[in-house]
């Protein structure tokens, strides 16, 4: 029996263009250069995963994760490259598979897809789709993506795009099976679907981590009911680390408050007391010293049993130097400590 894979830690970004500390909006070209440097540093420092997500808005720099990841692939050697997420509801699964299969060739077998429905709906009118068919699009296209991954050629007929008959989809990836993860923001039906399909699962934890315990349990039960082996669980969270807890919080608070105001307006204005509560040991926000980050990852592991943690970095116009220091600490102090703790448990 082979030993279990080690716990993985990585970083990701949506490439948001939050205003910087002087109130100036970040431009997309600068943000894209920053993102590629994050990938290089994460790879060199020994992190496991690098991801970028998809938006089609003026306040985000990334609309095509596969293109950005391909650029990162050319500048990295070992780190896995994933979308976080690919908005599959408004994408053509044939093109998605072709793009990520090409990324797999460029990167030497390091590509992954994270399929999700997306937190925003701007892509639907942009691509001429009907918003009221939101769920239908995702179910139909996820089925097709998995069929393309597992069969070639394939014959398929659904309800949201033209059928395929004995169609070959090329190129094929280096990996025998291109990994497809499912992204879940907190909806039980999404967790159940991922389990039923046997897909590894990301939980985007933006509220109290404890409430995601039931989703992890539902996911595993659904997999077992479908006679499938439950896949891996990953966790994604907002993140910043410095050597000292107070230093991390003092640096990060104004940036994170700006990020919440622009990107999560329904959460309301984030004051310092709320920030401290969110970053408490049982809160969703990872902001503190390396030891605090380690303890929180291990606590969530006890609740969820996850084996991958992705930190969302560079939030709220945080400086490039601070972001890079945070990435390096995640790799050099947090990752080794987590692996040691879990290997001895």
From TrEMBL:
InterPro entries: Bact_Lucif_Oxidored, Luciferase-like_dom, Luciferase-like_sf. The keyword Oxidoreductase applies. Keywords: Monooxygenase, Oxidoreductase. One of its GO terms (cellular component) is cytosol. Gene3D superfamilies: Luciferase-like domain. The keyword Oxidoreductase applies. One of its GO terms (molecular function) is monooxygenase activity. Residues 10-300 form the Luciferase-like domain. This is LLM class flavin-dependent oxidoreductase. It comes from Arthrobacter psychrolactophilus.
């Amino acid at each position: 029996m082979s030993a279990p894979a080690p716990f993985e830690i990585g970083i990701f970004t949506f490439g948001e263009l939050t205003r910087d500390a002087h109130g100036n909006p970040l431009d997309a070209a600068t943000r894209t250069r920053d993102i590629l440097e994050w990938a290089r540093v994460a790879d060199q420092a020994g992190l496991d995963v690098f991801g970028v997500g998809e938006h089609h808005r003026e306040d985000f720099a990334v609309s095509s994760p596969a293109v950005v990841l391909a650029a990162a692939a050319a500048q990295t050697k070992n780190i896995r490259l994933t979308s976080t997420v690919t908005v599959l509801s408004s994408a053509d699964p044939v093109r998605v598979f072709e793009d990520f299969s090409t990324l797999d060739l460029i990167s030497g077998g390091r590509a992954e897809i994270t399929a999700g429905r997306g937190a925003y709906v701007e892509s639907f009118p942009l691509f001429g789709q009907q918003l009221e068919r939101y769920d239908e699009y995702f179910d139909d296209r996820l089925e097709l993506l998995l069929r393309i991954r597992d069969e070639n050629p394939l014959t398929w007929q659904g309800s949201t795009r033209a059928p395929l008959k004995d169609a070959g989809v090329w190129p094929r990836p280096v990996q025998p099976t291109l990994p497809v993860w499912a992204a879940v923001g907190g909806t039980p039906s999404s967790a159940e679907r991922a389990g039923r399909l046997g897909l590894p699962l990301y939980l985007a934890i933006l509220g109290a981590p404890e409430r995601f315990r039931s989703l992890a349990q539902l996911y595993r039960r659904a997999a077992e009911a479908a006679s499938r082996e439950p896949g891996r669980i990953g966790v994604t969270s907002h993140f910043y680390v410095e050597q000292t807890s107070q230093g991390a919080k003092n640096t990060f608070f104004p940036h994170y408050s700006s990020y919440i105001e622009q990107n999560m307006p329904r959460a309301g204005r984030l004051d310092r007391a709320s920030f401290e509560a969110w970053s408490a040991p049982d809160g969703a926000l990872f902001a503190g010293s390396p030891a605090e980050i380690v303890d929180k990852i291990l606590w969530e592991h006890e609740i969820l049993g996850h084996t991958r943690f992705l930190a969302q970095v560079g939030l709220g116009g945080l400086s490039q130097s601070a972001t890079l220091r945070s990435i390096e600490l995640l790799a050099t102090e947090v990752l080794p400590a987590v692996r040691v703790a879990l290997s001895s448990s």
